[in-house]
Amino acid sequence: MIVRRSAALLAATAVIGTVCAPAALADESPSVSPSASASQAFPSGLFGSTDPTYDGVWRQSLALLAQHTVGVKPAAKAVDWLTGQSCANGAFAPYRADASARCGAKTMVDTNSTAAAVQALEALGGHDSVTSAAVKWLKSVQNEDGGWGYAPGGASDTNSTSVVIGALEAADIDPDDVPSKDEKTPYDALLALSVPCDEDGGGAFAFQPDKKGRLAANADATTAGLLGSLGKGLVTQAGDKAGDDASKGSKCEGGDSFTRQDAAANGAAYLTGALAKNGYLKSALAGAEDQPDHGNTADAVVALAAAGRTSEAGKPLAWLEKNSGTWAAKSGPAAYAQLIFAAHATGTDPRDFGGADLVKQLGATGPAGQASDASAGPADKGDKGDKTKQNDDEDGGVSLWWIIGVGLVGGIGVGFLISGRNKKQQP
Q1: Rounded to whole angstroms, how far apart are CA atoms 114 and 131?
Q2: DSSP 82-151
Q3: Would you tell me how many other CB atoms lie within 10 Å of the CB of residue 323?
């Protein structure tokens, strides 16, 4: 999804008012603002040519993970740039222009950037000190319901909880072994965000409950929740046996014995139905409701493949091969990475994706990598190859303008990123 102002406002609506705890940010030292001026020359190790203020770590993480997945060894300076963005306490902000300065109370760290960085660096290997600190920080900002919000202290949402689950799995940590103070696991948080079968959009995931506690089906959250319920990260392999329990029929499952496998199966069925007519998911942006959402569709292909529904993923995959070129070129490295993940998940050659070489196109957006000895890809659980805001108000709350800023980034292939999430989204 290409982020626009209206999406940012909707995302802000979903977040403002939910943050009641002080942000557990970083070190008690001089603050570092993630601002980047229009005249500033961006680091040579960074992927993408647009302002990285709100998505630098996210797009870098996806780019490095995608290169690793297709057997390209990322440039050392690209990896160094990502590791250098880490705060001393392990958290990552979307972008720190001066990474040599210590993080402070005003450094706007978030769970999504941190979790994406963990997934990328764990896949690459050799960065245990960075990833272990990041995981420790993620655990420290877990909510009592077992989940995570975008910003520390924010209400849990499906997308943030799912990307953190992917980070835990990448670090070989079972999410069931990460209970909150109330003994709730990340999977408990996802189950609470699954729309009941007898309600409108039953089987889908909601982004967050509304003010009255109601859950509204959200296609973007459903792609994330499906992967999270399966314990999968941003990268999954075609024919992954972990998805067998989610490859059931279309009947929505519920009841007192409702499991995360049931939630995954329900989510997969919902996405299958949403994609059946056109082969793509639609945008939730005001005035663009009938327009395709390329990023969310790519994520849906990955999620369906993870659920063992590769045949259902075929139609949206074919649509992406035919229609995603202009979107990806405009959106940049994160979009190319999402398409590579979709190709990889379905056993499709990313070097011949509808006639396009996604690997070459991604490489052109950043420092040159080099071919590895063997193509790297996800394997069984335990193999590292598989593992793949704020205005700093005195009360520590998330600023509307920070969230809007996240959403104003041009050309993010959003997927899991907070700015593309509208809790009232329908397919």
Answers
A1: 9
A2: HHHTB-TTS-B-S--S-TTSPP-TT----HHHHHHHHHHHHHH-S-HHHHHHHHHHHHHT--TTS---SS
A3: 15
Q: Which pair of structure tokens corresponds to residue 14? A: 């979903």
Alpha helices in 230-332 (DSSP H): 260-276, 294-306, 310-323, 325-331
Q: State how far the alpha carbon of 169 is from the alpha carbons of 29, 230, 249, 300, 388, in Å.
A: 32, 11, 27, 20, 8
Report the candidate in 59, 65, 70 with the shortest Cα–Cα distance to residue 347.
70
250 Cβ neighbours under 8 A, 6+ residues apart = 269, 272, 273
pLDDT in tens, 386-415: 333 333 333 334 454 455 454 444 333 344
Q: Would you call 246 helix, strand, or coil by DSSP?
A: helix
Q: Is residue 167 part of a domain?
A: yes
CB 132 within 8 A of CB 84: no
Query: How many domains, the chain?
Result: 1
Contact (Cβ atoms closer than 8 angstroms) between residue 197 and residue 203:
yes
Distances (CA, A) of 276 to 176, 225, 269, 273, 413: 34, 20, 10, 5, 22
Task: Kindly report the number of other CB atoms within 10 A of residue 391's CB atom.
Answer: 13
d(CA 310, CA 291): 24
Position 41 in a domain: no
Ramachandran category for residue 56: left, alpha or beta (phi over 0 → left; psi -120 to 50 → alpha): alpha
Q: Which domain holds residue 363?
A: 5-36+47-420
Task: Determine which helix (DSSP H) or strand (DSSP E) holds 1, and give its type and residue range.
Answer: none
Q: What tokens does 361 get?
A: 């196109």
In the block, residue with structure tokens 């189950």: 191
d(CA 81, CA 74): 11
Q: What's the CA gap between 205 and 3, in Å, rounded?
A: 21
Low-confidence ranges of the chain (pLDDT < 50): 1-39, 240, 242-243, 374-398, 400-401, 404, 406-427
Is residue 42 situated within a structural domain?
no
Asked whether residue 426 is domain-assigned, the answer is no
Q: What is the CATH number of the domain that holds 134?
A: 1.50.10.20
Coil, strand or helix at 356: strand
Prediction pTM value: 0.81
